[in-house]
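Let us practice reading a record.
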Amino acid sequence: MNKSKSKVIQIATLLLLSALYWYFNQAPVNYSNSIETNTVEAKNQVQILEQYYKNKTSKTMIQITGTVIKLLSDDLIEPRHQKFIIKTSNKMSLLVTHNIDLAPRINSLNEGDEVLIYGQYEWNDKGGLLHWTHHDPKKRRAGGWIIHNGKKYE
């Protein structure tokens, strides 16, 4: 084996080992208390969402709690998205499109589950859409996330 091939294999091995070390040393973070946000804050978020809908606001980040009412098929055209619909405490429905090329898919998600989401709201006449529920790979802006069953997906 020539010297350059050997060097490439060494670098690839180091990168793989580093990624494995990082993956297996991720401490689980307990986010379960985040879903139980205090009532005032939750009401404020719902009021903000109502204003966004009323004013046809888009491209604005929001944090909202909702119950999954419908799981939809994943969009498998790149960028791939996991899709589901949530209903908020004020009975508004939101389509969530969670980019699974940039964030882990939420495999344990079921209808009836409660989720806390921080993402970008986009107005539509059906209630709206939430996306940007993931980190920004270019680090130009704050990333979004979804918390489900005490685990954060970003």
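A brief commentary: Residues 47 and 90 are 9 Å apart (CA to CA).
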